[in-house]
Design goal:
Length: 268
């Protein structure tokens, strides 16, 4: 599988949309890997993961073709991952299409928002639930429960295809025990994990900082969830984590963890 990270920023991006911070200033000055649009990815050019407010910019910057998407798979309904208003451009009069060419997979909150905005529109909507695998064009996709937004079944996603497997864990928090039990022995080839809080230690449960990422990776390997030679790449970085790309790289590289950036593509 080819995984392309289209965006690796948290809710308000890096530099922060309106906020001020050292990392935001650095990103404005230096650009490059420190510019992070809202987190999203695409698998093999056609399985789109999340559809946030930066999608159009990501399409033109990183050359993914929406006309070729077979699906959009949502992790959860936070605004940095779901911008349903932009779905209107897939149908007439903006295209010649009378229906959307992709299937939309999402939890109750995601589908509820899309249905509220577009009642009776010809979207193919499929409800997803944590720990229930579904198949899409030969890919096995399994949402697993994140520990993120308690009033919603937020997903991380295990994607398997032709004997290869990886986990997309944006907005995950440090998992609760049922998810750890589910991950045991999975022998994933790669994981993408959020590193929202960077060097900032907080008491908020819904996101991870760099130390928690290391802890998660070590525990995953110890229970056989991730192969010892598995790739680990970060995403969903917040400017408030007070870590530039290079600083975070210096911290995580000794642990075998690669810091993700917008446009990074890798083979699983
Ligand atoms: Zn998010
Ligand atoms: Zn979120």
């Amino acid at each position: 599988m080819e995984v392309k990270l289209l965006g690796t920023g948290a809710a308000d991006g890096v530099p922060a949309f309106f906020g001020n911070s050292r990392v935001s200033d650095y990103a404005f000055m230096h650009g490059g890997k420190d510019i992070r649009t809202r987190a999203a990815a695409v698998i093999d050019g056609h399985i789109k993961l999340d559809f946030g407010p930066d999608t159009y910019f990501q399409v033109v910057s990183h050359q993914t073709r929406p006309a070729e998407w077979s699906s959009i798979v949502f992790t959860h309904s936070h605004d940095d991952h779901l911008c349903e208003a932009e779905l209107q451009y897939v149908l007439m009069p903006f295209t010649q299409e009378g229906y959307a060419p992709f299937t939309i997979y999402g939890n109750e909150s995601v589908l509820g928002r899309i249905q509220a905005r577009f009642p009776d529109w010809p979207f193919e909507l499929v409800l997803t639930k944590s720990f229930e695998t579904f198949e899409h064009l030969g890919y096995q996709i399994t949402p697993v429960a994140a520990y993120h937004r308690l009033e919603e079944d937020c997903h991380n996603l295990i994607i398997e295809h032709e004997g290869r497997s990886f986990l997309y864990g944006t907005d995950t928090g440090y998992w609760r025990e049922p998810t750890w039990e589910f991950m045991a022995g999975r022998q994933l080839h790669a994981v993408v994990l959020e590193c929202t809080d960077g060097f900032l230690r907080t008491t908020y449960h819904g996101h991870m900082d760099a130390r928690e990422v290391i802890e998660t990776v070590n525990r995953l390997v110890s229970i056989g969830g991730l192969r010892t030679d598995g790739q680990v790449i970060t995403t969903h970085h917040c400017h408030a984590g007070n870590a530039t790309h290079d600083e975070l790289e210096a911290f995580l590289k000794p642990h075998g963890i690669q810091v993700g950036f917008d446009g990074l593509s890798f083979e699983v």
